[in-house]
Structures are given as structure tokens and as C-alpha cells.
Amino acid sequence: MTARDRILSAIRATLGPGKPPERIAAEAAALLEDPDAARPRLAAPELPEAFALKAAALGTTIDCIATLAEVPRAMARYLDAHGLPPRFAMQPVPELAALDWQGLAPHPAVAADEPAALGLALYGIAESGSLVIHSGPQNPILLSFLPLHHVVLLREATLLPYLEDYAARLAAQAIPRNAILITGPSGTTDIEGSYVRGAHGPGFLHVILIAG
Amino acid sequence: MTGEPKPTVGLFVTCLVDAIRPQIGFAALQLLEEAGCVVEVPQAQTCCGQPALNSGDDRDAAHLARQTIAAFEGYDHVVLPSGSCAATMVHGYPELLAGDPDWAARARAMAAKTHEITSFLHDVMGFMPRGRRCDASATYHDSCSGLRELGVAAQPRALLTQVEGLEMRGLPGNDACCGFGGTFCVKYSAISNAIVTEKAEAVESTGADILLAGDLGCLMNMAGKLHRRGAKTRCFHTVEVLAGRAQGPAIGEDAP
Amino acid sequence: MNAPFKAPFKAPFKARAAAALADPVLKTAIDRTTGNAERKRAAALAAFPEFEAARARGQAIKDHVIAHLGHYLEMFERNATARGAQVHWAGDDAEARAIVTRICLAADARLVTRAKSMLGEEIGLPHALADAGIERVETDLAEHIIQLAGEAPSHIIWPAMHRTREQVAELFKTGHQPPPAAEDPATMVQSARRVLREKFLSADIGISGANFLVADTGATCTVTNEGNAELTTTPPRIHIVTAGIEKLVPSTAHALALLRLLVRSATGGEMTQYTTFHAGPKRPGDADGPEEMHIVLVDNGRTKMLADEFREMLRCIRCGACMNHCVVYRQIGGHAYGGTYPGPMGSVLTPVLDGLAASRDLPNACTMNGRCAEVCPVGIPIPTLLRAWRRRSWREGLEPGPVRAGIGLWAQLARRPRLYRLATRIGLPALRLFGKGGWISRLPLAGGWTDHRDLPRPAARSFMDQYRAQQKARK
Q1: Which residues of B touch C370 (CB under 8 A)?
Q2: Could you give the dihedral angle defined by the CA atoms of residues B222, B228, B230 and B236, in that order, rounded to the nearest 10 degrees?
Q3: Nearest-angstrom CA–CA distance, B235 and B220
Q4: Are residues B109 and B154 in the same domain?
Q5: If you average pLDDT over residues C237-245, what whole number do you get?
Q6: How confident is the model at residue C11 (pLDDT cuts 50, 70, 90)?
Q7: A194 band by pLDDT with thresholds 50, 70 and 90
Q8: Count of beta carbons in the 10 Å neighbourhood of residue B2
């Protein structure tokens, strides 16, 4: 008998024959009914404000702009403010490549000690101030983890109220290899509970929130 | 009380009160009578069985459970000046006797009418002590079983507000265990000592004259540690203050 | 299921506890971390009035999965396989170690990075890798610290919480080349970042645990605040997940509902910084990711727990709140417990993993104050489960002779009220002879009490005798 058979038959011996899968699925769905009863309220009635409040509380900085075309200027502002060079890694997506980067020098590959990187969030979650990224051909996961400064573009239209809303979106699409909820910069409290940023991932998380 | 018959109460004083500090039993008796109960103290009581229950000796614990149920089930209410012994009857007995067809229902019925004394006085009898005075500052430790298994927290505090002259002070870590734990305190005495040392430090930090609690086991542990440390804090069971019996010697000051 | 690598903990529990109690540095370290955790959790709950409802729901989700465990395991296996992951099953720790080692050797792996996983500790993975001659680099900062110290975790959330910053500085001085420039936490964290960054990118295999196994997608979920899990699992060629079979949840939404409870209970935060679902290896065209993903589903006593009175323990989501709020843990720390899992949850689990005979002290060394159950985010009745172990220990004759004799003698008396009265009538005056004033400060056979505290002198006459006399006088 394989370990698999032993484990499954031990479970069957204890629990008996299972219910029909549809019944189990219905029970599982019922456990999530009336989600409002068991989740926190949003920090503000409007999603962008609620998101911003939660994100800021975790040390994420936010810059609000009107359109995608303003991204290069917003990026330049951020790099400047932190004394960073104009070179940075950028997610290889056409809509970013098409922008007029003027004096800035984005490049597609992310280096081991990349000072800064710019990427695009698929969604934002207002409840927790989280950014969602999915892996894919145009989305290297390491772009979000290797740089010291992680700058993320987020469109207001992609803001979702609650974690459940994201779970529903995920369930409705092809499951990516990695789905990641990023909630604030990397941090640790492993030495005497004192909070230090930039443990392994980015020490700085900056969101450029695009209204249009 | 008009017309309605007075409720009968079987008072279980607990083995520790019986042996160490009978005054707590008399204070309980007095308060129950003041609250309008007809109180009896069945002679067949010894110990609720908790030491056996917590040691894993279910046979002896079940025997004591049956003995106690037989002695007390005839009363309208069973009342104890101890949250932990009351919790043993409320939760432990039904669990112990669940598989016993003759006793399971009796254990549940008894559990349903068993109460820790301050919650009984406050919640069931709607009683408030009158004309009590105690010119002192006091702090209150929430004994764990009463607090978590029976929800005893607001009742003793509400009753204590009726005592004139008594200044209540908050105890840092009031809901943290004192390290008594029944047989734990002797089986693992070094760990227990470390815990009660912190508790004693917290009590001393309040500067209160008096330490109050609702369980003599915890009180003996804390009073014994405070005394060993040379602290001047005096320790009483809550009902002693409520019954106006805190003028005399505190725990350990003299054996009454 | 005894893991041979647990050799460092040979001393009996009481000796380990005594050593811990005598270590003031340890106490300082424990107080700093658990005190902070307790305060932050309380604040997080105060900001989430729906917590009680969320807890009831979390408990119901876990109970649902446990009740249909076979169904969900097969569903998970099917979906994970469909995403290209290879699913392995391990009945015990030895099988799990063998599977992981085999994968590593087959891949000719020289360097393995690992993201903290208590299951990995439970199955003895660190030592198995060492035995196979594979370099293992722990990437969680705390695990990195204890790897340098050659220690086991002392807490399931903060494995290095027994170490002060001064002690960490000592370890980094020799463990980092070059050593950190200063001893403050920020500088030391930067130093670890630099040292570990090279390892992340040159590892052959990354090993992680899983906080959740999502049945309907076949994804495993890791949560970290450091970002080390993603750096562990993305660059290497192979990602191995080791996870207990109780980690299943029906869907992503169920996982996220439990995550709300987990984070608040563990650290007092609202959300982990990095919550990552891993569904299979790199897809065609993906910019990065491992070429192979292996998932090892580990039983190691869990189906046994399912079958007996410890089933509720399978709800555990490993938040550590029970230990942060335990008066015993806060005095002796994690190592004194001697098992993989310390504190109240460990006192339930260790007898399952290491056998009751070797661990009977753990369920006994508890005051039954109930705080662990009060703070448990999935409503595990820990004291009830500890009492179940005590019952078993009593039944199997594992309790020490003097304890059995003492309880037995006392019970014989208590079962005979008249004899009991007689005994108090004789015993109380006799006991009083040991007292001076109102106190007894030394009492033969009661050193457990009087070594540390005074005993109030008993009454001359018991309550029952006084009461009976009063009743007679009234008549």
C-alpha cells in the first residue's frame, strides 16, 4: 500500500464514506455567506481613500495622478526625492514602454541589487491596502522582491473593496502560477520584536495611484 | 419577599474554605441569607473532585461528582464561594458523567443550577449589599476558572462598588493566572513560583491595602507569596468584604 | 515517529524548565516579544469588532475541511497535478524526509534555501539535508539567527525570540563576512539581507512550507512579512513544499478569511506583507519561476488525531497566540518544552509526535487557566485536550508514584464524608503545630509549597464543625 492509500484509507475509516461533492461544495459556500458579518469595515466609504489609509498605515507612500501619461513625471519625482539614479527596472509591458520617459532610463531586467523598480498592479484591495500581482510572461515576480524601492502603478478602477472580491476575481480567471498580495514594504520583527524595514524584499513601497 | 417562597440554596463551602478559612463560608452563608435564600450546608460535602479531575484520575473524580450531586441536587440552587470548584460542577461533572446513563442527566441538571457566589448574588438574586463599610484601598484579581469558564468579572466589581470607603485600584495583568493551578503549584513549584512572583510584584505595584479574589486557592498562593516577600498587602476573599467581615484578621494574619 | 535529531533535549522537563528560569536574559527576551505581541493583538482585535464572528467562521471552515478531509486532499492533488506540480504523500516524518532528500539528490542539488516552516522542523528536514550533504540556508531572519546559533526554534512565529539583540550581534560577528558595522537591529538586518541575497540567487532548490493548501486551485499559500518565501521559491530550478494534511481549505476565499484571523492573532497586524499563492511550476513563457514544483503532503500523526479525541487540534493555524498568552511559556520559553512546537499547542501536539511517555510533563505543566483557549482564533479547547492527555497518562500508569498515591489517599478520604470530618478534626490542629503566628513557613512533604511561599495556618476547627456546633446551639 502506498502512503497515499494508507492516509486516505485511515481517513475513510474514521470519517466513513464521504458526502456527494455537490453537498460538500454547498456547505463550503455557505460558510462564506454574509461576509460583512465577519470582516472589518472599510477605513473610508470611498475605495481610493480606504485603500490609501490602510496602505499608508503600513508605511506605503502614495502619489495620486490623473492619467497614465503622468507616470514618468511621478517616477522622476520619486527617484529624485530619494536620491536615486534615473536608471530603474521596469515591468516589460507595452503600455509602460510606450510612455515618454524623457530623462529617465527604464530597463527590463532586474538586477540582484536593483535600487528601484516600477511595476503594474492588477488590483488593489481597499480593506487591507494590498496590491495584487500575478506572474506571467510580462510579469517577473522578482521585479517586486529584488529592488530596494518598489514602485507600483495602480488604477483606481481596479480597486476592489474586500479580500473576498479579489478571491472571486481570481476564481473567474485562469489561475496564474503566482498570485501575490503585497501589503506594505518588507519588514521583520525578528530581533527583539523591533520593526525593521527591508528585511529581504523592498524596504520602500510606493504606489502611484492613477485616477483615469 | 412577599408571598413567593424563598429559594433554597445548598452551600458548598469547598474543602479549602472548610480547612483553612471557615470565615469565608460564614460570609457566604450570611450574604445568601441577606439575599433572601434559605441556605443549607449538606454534611455529605467534602471536595468537588477537581484535584482528581485535573490529574487525569477520572474514576475518583466521577465518584466524587456522583456523591456531590446526590447531596446537592435537591436544592433550587447550588452556590460556591469559588469559581474553580463551581466550574468543576458546571463543566466538569457533565463531561465526566456523560457516558453514565444513570447520572448524565442529573449532572446536567445540577450544572444548570450551580453558581459562583458573586454571580449568583448579582445575576440571580439581584442582590446588593447595604450599609457595608471598609476604609481601605483594594485591588481585585480575576481568578481564571471563574472568569473564563463562568464569566465572573463584572459581578464582583459591581457588588464591591456598594462597599462604602472602599477604593478599588486596577491590577496590572488582573486576568493573568497567579500560578496556583491546583496541584500544578506543587508539581511544578519552580514555574509556579516564577508566575506568582510576577503576580505579587503587580499587586505590590498598586500600593493597595487589600488584595481581593474569589478563590481561596489563588488567594493562598498570592497571600503566601506576598507574605514571604514581606509585603504588607492583606488578602481577603471578596465575600468577606461584602459581608462586612474584613475588619478582622486577613488570610494568614491569624487562624480564626 | 521519534525524530532522532532531537538529541539536544535529553534533560528532563523540570531540569530544562529550571535552567530556563535561572536565565534572566531569556526572561528579558521573552517578555519583550510576548508582551509586544499581546498588546498588538489586543489593539488589532479592538479595531475589528467582527472578530468573534470571524473566529466562529474560521472554526467552522476548519471543521468543515476536517470532516471532509479525504475529499479535499484528493481535490487538491487533482488540481495541483493539473497545474504541473508533483504531489507526494508521506505517512510519517521519515517518509517525508526521504522524499525531500530524494528530490534534492536526483537534482544534484548542492545549495538549498528554506523559508521557515514548522512542518519542516517537525519532520526533521534540517538534519536530513545535512545528513545528505546538502548545504541548507535558512532565509527567514529568525531562522537565520538560530541556524548560526545551531539551535531549534523557541517560538513558532519568532523562532529566535529567546535571543537578545546583543546575542544576535555576537552571532553575526562571526557568521557574516564582513560582519555588520553596528549592533542595532537595522544594521544587522541589512547585513543579513546582503549575505542571504547571494544565496537566494544561487540556490538549486527552494523549500517552503504552506500556510494553506487551496483545494479548488491546487495552490499552496505562504505568508511572510520579509518576502523571503518568494525569494526562496522563485529563482531556484525546483520548489519543494512540505505541508501537513490539515492545511487544506476549500478555496482562496476561505484561505483569506482564515488569514484575517491568523495575522491578527500572530503579530497583531491586519495582513501579512506578502501573501503568495503558488500554483505549479513556471508556465510556458513565464518571466521567472521554478521548473519543477513538488508538494509533499505529510500525515505524521494527523490521521491518528482525526480518529481520537485530539481531532479539534487539527484546526490549529499555527498563530502562536496561545504561547504569547501562556503564563508558563512566558516563564520558561520555548526550548524547555523540548518538542518542535512549544507552549500550549505544543503540549497537545508533542505527545502525538514524540509519544506520551517521553512528554507526559507537558500536558501536566499547565495551570488550566484557559487563556490559550480564550485567545485561540479557531476555538481549540486546549485545556480540554490537555486534560485528555492527563487522563491517558493516568490510565497508562505514567504519572509518578507519589502523585498517584497522594491523589488516591485524598480521594479515599473525600469519598467518605464522616471519615473526612474525622481527618480534618485530627489533622487541622496537628498542622497548626507547624505554624508560627498565622503562617506555616516550613512543612514536611509540602516543600513544593513552602519552598517558595508561606502557607496560611489552617483553622483550629473546620467550617463544617463550627457550622454544626452553631446549628446545635440554635436548636
Answers
A1: 144-145, 148-149
A2: 30
A3: 9
A4: no
A5: 98
A6: confident
A7: confident
A8: 3
Cell, residue C4: 532522532
Per this entry, what is the length of chain B?
256
Q: Is residue C356 part of a domain?
A: no
Residue B80 lies in a domain: yes
The verdict on B142 and B218 lying in the same domain is: yes
Quote the domain boundaries for residue C174: 4-303
The cell for C259 is: 488569514
Q: In this structure, what CATH number is given to the domain that contains residue C60?
A: 3.40.50.10420
Q: How many domains does chain B have?
A: 2
Closest CA in chain C for residue A139: C287
What does the alpha-carbon distance between residue C77 and residue A5 come to, in Å, rounded to a whole number?
13
* Three-state DSSP state, C326: coil
With CA atoms as reference, report the closest residue to B184 among B145, B154, B211, B153.
Answer: B145
DSSP label at residue C140: S
Residue B215's contacts (CB-CB under 8 Å, 6 or more residues apart) are B82, B83, B84, B143, B145, B146, B180
Distance CA A70, CA A99 (A): 9
Q: In angstroms, what CA-CA distances link B55 with B59, B60, C367?
A: 11, 10, 11
Is residue C409 in a domain?
Answer: no
C-alpha cell at B232: 504588607
Give the cell for residue C373.
Answer: 483557549
CB under 8 Å to C466, separation ≥6 — which residues? B22, B26, C459
DSSP letters, C97-130, are HHHHHHHHHHTT--EEEE---HHHHHTTHHHHHH
- How is residue A31 annotated by DSSP? T
Closest to C82 measured CA to CA, from C181, C261, C217: C217
Residue numbers of the domain that contains B91: 8-123
Q: How far apart are CA A65 and CA C386, in angstroms?
A: 57
Domain ranges of chain A: 1-31, 43-210
Q: Which of residues 31-60 of C touch A (CB under 8 A)?
A: 32-33, 36-37, 47-48, 50, 53-54, 56-57, 60
**Which DSSP letter does residue C227 get?**
S
Q: Do B55 and C464 touch (CB under 8 A)?
A: no
Q: Could you read off the pLDDT of C386-403 as tens digits, one per residue?
A: 999 999 999 999 999 999
Within 8 A by CB and 6+ apart from C13, the residues are C336, C337, C338, C359, C361, C362, C365
Q: What is the CATH topology of the domain spanning A43-210?
A: Rossmann fold (3.40.50)
User: Which residue blocks in C249-399 are alpha helix, DSSP H?
Assistant: 252-266, 302-307, 321-324, 329-332, 343-354, 361-364, 371-375, 382-395
Euclidean distance between the first and final Cα of chain A, in Å?
60
C122 in contact with A, Cβ within 8 Å: no
The separation between the first and the last C-alpha atoms of chain B, rounded to the nearest angstrom, is 34
Closest CA to C317 of C126, C120, C122, C118: C118
pTM of the complete model: 0.96
d(CA C207, CA C139): 10
Q: Is B135 in the same domain as B119?
A: no
- How far is Cα C224 from Cα C273, in angstroms, rounded to an integer? 6
- Between chains, do C367 and B67 touch, taking CB under 8 Å as contact? no
Kindly list the partner chains of chain B, i.e. chains with 3 or more CB atom pairs below 8 Å: C
- C50 grid coordinates: 467582527
Q: What is the mean pLDDT of residues C36-40?
A: 94
For residue C403, being part of any structural domain is answered with no
Segments of chain B scoring below 70 in pLDDT: 1-3, 255-256
Strand, helix or coil for residue B184: helix
Rounded-to-integer distance, Cα A63 and Cα A80, Å: 14
Rounded CA-CA distance C338/C73 in Å is 31
Residues C201, C202, C204, C205, CA torsion sign: negative
Distances (CA, A) of C336 to C307, C377, C425, C434: 29, 25, 43, 35
Q: Does B156 contact C at CB distance below 8 Å?
A: no
ipTM of the complex: 0.98
